[in-house]
Amino acid sequence: RELVSREKSSLRGESLPEHARGVHVKIRRSALLEDGYMQLGGLSAEQLKGTVRIEFVSELGMSEAGIDRFGVFKEFLEETAAKAFDENLGLFRSTARRQLYPSPASAVAVGPSHLQLFEFVGRMLGKAVYDGIALEASV
Questions:
Q1: How many helices (H) and strands (E) does the chain have?
Q2: Which pTM was predicted?
Q3: Among 35, 43, 41, 49, residue whose Cα is nearest residue 7
Q4: Distance (Å, rounded) from C-alpha 56 to C-alpha 123?
Q5: Long-range contacts for 96-104 (Cβ within 8 Å, ≥24 apart)?
Q6: What is the pLDDT along the chain (139 residues), one digit of tens a residue?
């Protein structure tokens, strides 16, 4: 964790005041995976290592108040993982022992962007590990 903290403190813009630090995105709860992919999928590795601030937007189009950026970001990561691992989406399947694996039919279920979606999910899981955020994945 110390190595990550030192690396984070050396990233461009991370020394700015909290409200001005990092990347700020608005995510509609009704389109969480899609908005996350569109807004965060193209971030550089350096941007992804830095602060990512999530602002949820309700179905009524209203910004939701967040307790703190870590809690909101963790919630975003948990909900992203839950949606991505949901077998109804078609990216992943599970074995009888409840172990996940990439669905061989993901191209049919998700469409031509299925590989980019796998990459996005992997990057978000990597961000969770990098930031020391433990996620629960229910299958």
A1: 6, 4
A2: 0.86
A3: 49
A4: 20
A5: 98/139, 99/139, 100/137, 100/139
A6: 788 777 777 787 777 777 777 888 999 999 999 999 999 999 999 899 988 989 999 888 888 876 565 688 999 999 999 999 999 999 999 999 989 999 999 999 999 999 999 999 999 999 999 999 988 766 6
